[in-house]
Design brief:
InterPro entries: Ester_Hydrolysis_Enzymes (IPR051532), SGNH_hydro (IPR013830), SGNH_hydro_sf (IPR036514). With about 220 residues, the protein is an alpha/beta fold. Helix content is about 45%, strand content about 15%. The chain has one domain: SGNH hydrolase (Rossmann fold, 3-Layer(aba) Sandwich), CATH 3.40.50.1110. It contains ten helices and seven strands.
Length: about 220
Amino acid sequence: MIRYFPLLFLSVLSINAQQDLPFAEEVKEVQQRVDSIWDSSKNTIVFTGSSSIRLWEDLQKRFPGHHVLNTGFGGSQSSDLEHYLDELILNYTPAKVFIYEGDNDISAKRKPKAIIGTLEDIVEDLHLKRPKMEIVLISAKPSISRWHLKRRYKRLNKQMSKLASNINGVEFADVWNIMLDKRKLKADLFIEDGLHMNVKGYDLWYEIIKNFMNKSNP
């Protein structure tokens, strides 16, 4: 019996490590909610990423012709999503996934190059496990509270667009420019915290995202 102790010990460590992952409890709650509405017989589209997705509560109403699942988890960075690709995307066998990550990464002082590296890994893993899945990378959005970081966000978006153009089955949805009035941010698109959007903000996102819902990626 003693000779099995190392294996048992490693198993316990693995379980504890999984439980200690950031957002583990929130991801479980997301799974429970989404599992209750997912219809595996329907062609599924998943929206996932940080709080700008999590708070988009009327996604299904805006796209009634599609079976839409929202697996967003607030406060996440791209590296967090990478940990939960199965739980938040792959388990639902979607034909298409919209990903919004990078906003919190920049705020946490991650460099655009590092964020793109993580997004590349995510895309590669998703296509490895589900080659025909269409992936739409949503640009980082501008916001009042993070406007001082706009140059970093613009660099990230430029690199994200380039990433999408270089990989088959991946597209880039630019929500940055539609939220600006020339070079100035439209301040009436946000709730009191200056970071998260109100209905007007999501109305603008809808105008961009709808163009990708029925479109097949090259």
